[in-house]
Queue: 2 jobs
Job 1
Amino acid sequence: MSQLEIRQLRKEWQETLAVKNISFEIAQGEFVALLGPSGCGKSTTLKMIAGLEHPSSGSISLNGQDITHLPPGKRGLAMVFQSYALFPHLSIAENIVFGLKARGVGALERDQRLKRVTDLVNLGDHLSKRPSQLSGGQCQRVALARAIIAEAPLCLMDEPLSNLDAKLRNEMRAELRALQQRLGMTVLYVTHDQVEAMSMADRILLLNQGEIAQCGTPNALYQTPASTFVARFIGNPPMNLINKGSFLLGIRPEHIHLATDGIAAEVIRCDYHGADTIIDISLPSLSHQTIKLRLPGHQLLAAGSALNINWRSQDQHVFCSTTGQRLSDYVLPTLTTHSLIQKEFHHDTQH
Amino acid sequence: MNRFNQLYAWLMLLPALVLLLAFTHIPALTTLWHSLFFPARGRNPSEFAGLENYRSMLDDAVFWQAFHNNLWYAIGTVPTSMALALAMALWVNSKISGRAALRLAYFTPTMLPMIAVANIWLFFYTPEIGLFNKILNSVGLTGINWLGDPNWALISLMLMTIWKESGFFMIFYLAALQSLNKDIYAAAAVENASPLYVFRRITLPLLMPTTLFVLVNAVLNAFKLVDHLFILTKGGPNNATNLLLYYIYENAFSFFDSNYAAALTLVLLILLILLAVVQFLLVERRIHYR
Ligand SMILES: Nc1ncnc2c1ncn2[C@@H]1O[C@H](COP(=O)(O)OP(=O)(O)OP(=O)(O)O)[C@@H](O)[C@H]1O
Ligand SMILES: [Mg+2]
């Protein structure tokens, strides 16, 4: 059963169209990441679901009830903000039980739930402190605790980890995911960080300029990107797109390998990343288009040195060069034969 | 290096220090010295009086009346104008159309000098043709001798002061409200907190630093601002509206007893310092500074 149902949701301001008729569903216990570049309408979508922003049109329903026009507090959802939005003058304990107090939950039950939640997020020692006395990571836990304690059927999170440093973000990512699975929470998680979305989510909703570019499991977005936008957004470094006239050939840097009889290439520069090296190469046989490839370990290749590369045919993707849409999974003759493909492609009907 | 820095710091402070000493601290000390003498009579040099000026203050019925009046004046104007200021700030901070015009309207009384305000209100209060009495008459009530009736005179002054001061304090509250984090309010809305609950548990506590600042200023103003007395009542009728600072002025420039005025000044100064200290100590403890 789907818990949250969004139908044709739209938001426009005078001259900006932030969200363009998007529809999606979230099932009970699912962790869905709303992913997209800055300004694509993620926060706006989340705010409309929370009731903090009125949709221009469309409907939102939660557990079968239409909540499109309910005030935020009556929707039965919890929210974690990017800025944590903790009450600076209240103690940590007061911050966490704020919602319970506002809803008139009795003192006894409040204390029990507070105890349970603070154990979950490891905040036991800090309950009497003020938010200003905690670190960013601890504040994040408080915000999380405040969302968990509500035991709401849906939890919304707007870039909750983006204010933390890289190491802490990695830790919190795993912790958050573990907590979500343990409690069976339904989460809609906004992020612009594809690694976060890929590693945490059951499903990713990739948004581009207010529209859903693709929706699917992290693996589906990586393996069968529906368009060049998805292909370039997911994966780091992004997928190489080789222009072949009527179509674009996509191949991920990590899927390119060195070969004895592959396509001839010339090294432009090397970027050493520790575990691997990103190498920019140009392809003389394809009018000197440059692509990136990723090789494990420390590879020191002088600029101008010659290589031969190749890839497996199942790793390549084909996109229409005008619309950018994925073309049906036609098995191309391998490029190594240099038989330039003249065949017509028909647009994929599944996306 | 360190010594040079110290010297440098003192040199930078010197201009302000000189001005402060010349126009604040030294006059305060001479006032203290001055208050220990009797006024000079004719050619005789003024005689040392010790604490005689202060003793006669205890027996001075007008002083006590002015003191009482001033306390009531403060009690009557400070909380009301602060509450009004907060209410207006909340109102013009909300999403209403034409709020810029509304803000300006509320702020206008503050831009007018007190003397001008007093002249406007003199017209409101005039017994026969005044605005207030005309309104009262039109609904069939008898008019009030606002400034002439000892029971009403101080209240009339308070009304005008509230009108003038609350717009000024509103600006501080408005600035504070606008600096509050919007996400906090979104979070409270998601938690189903009612507007009243949000005001009581969030807005009011977060405005406490502003409240302290406004409170101290309002109390000081209640003792410092007497310009309107010159226009409206001159302390009358029968000292019903005499305030401490105005009484000091009367002693110095109408009765030419500058020594007694100096003693009164010192008492007022000490009173104000005490009030400020008490307010800081009381409120400070309940304030959360970010
Ligand atoms: N109150 C508003 N009035 C007018 N336009 C707005 C308003 N809020 C957002 N927008 C516009 O709507 C678009 C989407 O904004 P939104 O905040 O949803 O982006 P986002 O995907 O959350 O980006 P980010 O990752 O930077 O947070 C932007 O172009 C923004 O300029
Ligand atoms: Mg955002």
Note: Chain B touches chain A through 19 residues (CB under 8 Å).
Job 2
Amino acid sequence: MKAKDTLLYLDGVSVSFDGFRAINNLSLVLQSGEMRAIIGPNGAGKTTMMDIITGKTKPDSGDVYFNGTVDLTGHDEADIAMLGIGRKFQKPTVFESHTVEDNLVLALSGPRSALSALFHRQSRDETDRIHEILYTIRLFEKRHWLAASLSHGQKQWLEIGMLLAQDPKLLLVDEPVAGMTDAETAETAKLLRDIARTRSVIVVEHDMHFVRELGVKVTCLHEGSVLAEGSLDHVSNDPRVIEVYLGR
Amino acid sequence: MITQWFFRHGDRRSLIAIIILVAVACLVPVLNLLVPDTSPFHVPTYLVSLLGKYLTYALLAVALDLVWGFCGILSLGHGAFFALGGYAMGMYLMRQIGPRGVYADPVLPDFMVFLNWKELPWFWYGFDNFWFAALMVVLVPGVLAFGFGWLAFRSRVTGVYLSIITQALTYALLLAFFRNDMGFGGNNGLTDFKDILGFNVQAGTTRSALFAATALFLALAVLVSSFIIRSKLGKVLVGVRDAESRMRFLGYRVDRYKLFVWTVSAMMAGIAGALYVPQVGIINPSEFEPANSIEAVIWVAVGGRGTIIGPIIGAILVNFGKTYFTAAFPEIWLFALGALFILVTLFLPKGILGLYGSWQARRASHAAQKDDEVLPPVVKQSSKRLAEPEPQAAE
Ligand SMILES: Nc1ncnc2c1ncn2[C@@H]1O[C@H](COP(=O)(O)OP(=O)(O)OP(=O)(O)O)[C@@H](O)[C@H]1O
Ligand SMILES: [Mg+2]
């Protein structure tokens, strides 16, 4: 397979931590506009894969291409974010001493230079976008709260809101429904499906109901490489997947 | 217009501080120069200089808080920038002495004649001009901070490691400035100043003017800090303090933001040092002592870091205490300072201003309960906002 015409292209990627192979000859391809769910047992390397894509971890070997031509291994986190890859962390990471609204202000796409930030004045347009996102993530009433005082689930939503504000081409979403009620989980699935209409998304999640609601192609990782790939039914009937993951 | 800006950005405290500082800048000279000695309102000249010295420390504390309180960079070497600004001013004051020195050399300062030097070293050129010296007061600390920060922040040195190398920086400068052949007066430093801008540095009027200048520069520093902190750049800085790596994933070049605020802060510290030297009449290498920089950290912690005016209160209070203790019980000052630091860290993690903030919030929540309004989150928000939360380690 060629990197050309793909949005994200990982080929033969490996990375070791102190001799331990967290990612082992991993290959994964995402088409433009596609949403993909990633499942797999704890320690399979799902988060590490996101670390590699976003420039936090440099792979020992292998190719990582974005948009067909951009070699991500040669860029740092800030560059990659500006290329259009946004990320939600497994442990929700918001700016706790800022208000909900200011978290979105910081995430909002736009110039990132220090000088422009010093003299930045929020435009009508930006305010409207922020308010729109606040409604989408159901935090409009709480926009003046400090992010620290949000519940776990609300922080997850705020972080998804920050992703929306960033307006990336590709969203990497790590365990978005951990700590959510069933109703919230269903809402989140709906929100992600909405988002996926205009963008590409990779979602890591352990919650099988949630993965089913997404209704997209699934990749199962195990010990740093792809164990199975296809529809959820196909993957969840794979005997090896049942053995290492579902059957436990 | 400035008032409007403050009100729009809700920074009333800084505005009040600026008004007080401007008032003090006018009032103290009047009480010193125009009110007769016999009046109980007379402020003696020694007190004017003492207060002026405290305000230069307050300016250093504001500078330090800008990087530590708002961006999480704990500098244990800010005294170095203060001292460099002080030396730049000291060099100007030395050259103003002219032929009135003990050796009556029209160009060379006494210590150079004493060392048998025949010519002024190149780096003393230009310092006979006040505006050149004034430029160096900000440029020398600024350039050093920029170079240091460029190396440190780009290689992502943070936390304790950064603190240690800032300490090493000031220590290295201490050793360098001790050497006679550096050309800065060695051990004795620069002293015996005569004039500043043609006015006798000892004169009461000059001392009052220096005091007023210090108060006004401090007011300006509050204004600049407030502008920076309320801007989007300030929000990025606080974000860096709370979750540095998260900021990078949003596309911000964290190192450049740090470099900006670090350099601005070093320049402020340089101005503080430059105002300090003519008021105390001497600058010597002991100003580079690592302990000085650590003391400045204590002022900020006592006053309340992450607030703009807390450090001013902390610097003034701790130095009042120091003046009193070192006169009354000189042996125990260091123990008292150490104990103060431990007490503040344990019981007042947000400093004096944090204490005031939580008192205010408690009052607000009482008021809210009385009105029988169910507004806990808002109260929670306002209390947290006043007493900015502890910075957390980036994930
Ligand atoms: N920076 C690191 N240093 C050392 N080991 C690491 C590092 N990052 C990840 N690992 C190891 O790599 C393996 C894969 O971890 P990773 O976090 O990617 O798993 P995961 O699939 O996201 O698991 P989970 O479902 O529990 O989130 C783990 O064994 C982990 O301990
Ligand atoms: Mg994970």
Note: The first helix of chain B runs from residue 2 to 8.
